[in-house]
């Protein structure tokens, strides 16, 4: 058999350092360059003091704020000038709470800060929601924090899942990228329905994906708009004390820029042919099948939506999935024309190396997840796992989902078995995925992982095997910058599918 086998060495595959792309998918819709010399009170407010550890020294005193050389300057100081204020230290900070919302898209902040023991500058976000949403259930996004004399900055995700349930390793909830000390650095975060992607100076440094449909509040970040916080905090960084000799310290903000997603390409997954037939949205009414339009590729499909009425042809499973991704939470949809097919014909999962005896219900669950990520082959030796009747039922079920169950990996050039284990290293995993995307595809072997992990790897593989711009090489290292080029378009729409099927009788 003409089979090649790749063995990889690290599960932490979702974090790749790569050169970020220009904002080809974004439109700059708002920015504050801080050139006016005054704080825009339509957007920003000074942060009031509170009992929260990061706000115990906050003050509105003007000496903690300034504008210099087109920068907003926030300071941390020894309190030797406000005798009525009993706090030993004072800090300045601003936020856009109740004033400026940030939805899906990209936030960029160019900033420079001093380094000192006990100094804790931060750029971060909290949900712009009612007071009934108690932290950390709405989530917290720390785009940049710096502690003490550290040579790196922090990206951190806080939620009920990471904080209360302490689920912090899969997916990793924190990253420690390096930065240029004493210089201006640009800190960015892209927020999608299914992931948060972080950058330092255009270099992608962390991806936090949505797992298992966001169960246990794992991904509340698709449910709210957020406000931005910029502050020069003192204390609470693990230092034994604050170094008074280094005070005052400053956080200088050169600009804040917000880019919204380009709606013409905000489609999941990114199709090969897409035409927006107007910007107005209509309430979705019904879907019909065009049986006259046929394609040679079994995965190819065509979707046309006009005034809330959809017509689909070709692979109806794919077409229906994309249709459900386009319907908003309000039940409305834009007029579009989408023609799409995958780049790789073989996008499979292999159970050949897995000694587990799969039950009927477990196999149905596996098939559901595969269909969700548009994988189309399952290599499975069913002997001893299910009854003959159950196997036949599963094959029928798989066929309805567009998945073929086969006994062995086909003897086709450039189709191989892709072994992944928990000791592997990035970026090797990206190189192999990229090579497989350039050929006929391949089969994932996920015997070393639990359900959450193999679902995450299926999602990762989809970015490459799907085609579109996800498989393009975009930097000198030969690694596809999948998240910033193709965007993170794997929004977890399974809940929507169920809702719309029930509502519109798909």
What do these coordinates show?
With 506 residues, the chain is α+β, with helices and mostly antiparallel strands. It folds into three domains: 154 residues, Alpha/beta knot (3-Layer(aba) Sandwich), CATH 3.40.1280; 236 residues, Jelly Rolls, CATH 2.60.120; 68 residues, Chitobiase/beta-hexosaminidase domain 2-like (Chitobiase, domain 2, 2-Layer Sandwich). The protein contains eight helices and 27 strands. The strands form four sheets. Strands 2, 4, 5, 6, 8, 13, 14, 15 and 17 form a nine-stranded antiparallel beta sheet that branches. Strands 3-7-16-9-10-11-12 form a seven-stranded antiparallel beta sheet. The protein has a six-stranded parallel beta sheet with strand order 1-26-27-23-24-25. Helix 3 runs parallel beside helix 4. The longest helix has 15 residues. The protein is elongated. The two termini are 42 Å apart. The C terminus is likely disordered.
Please tag this protein with its features:
506 residues, Alpha/beta knot, Jelly Rolls, Chitobiase, domain 2, 3 domains, seven-stranded antiparallel beta sheet, elongated, disordered C terminus
- Main structural class: alpha+beta
Q: What is the residue-mean pLDDT, rounded to a whole number?
A: 78
**Biggest sheet features:** 9 strands, antiparallel
**What is the CA-based Rg, rounded?**
25 Å
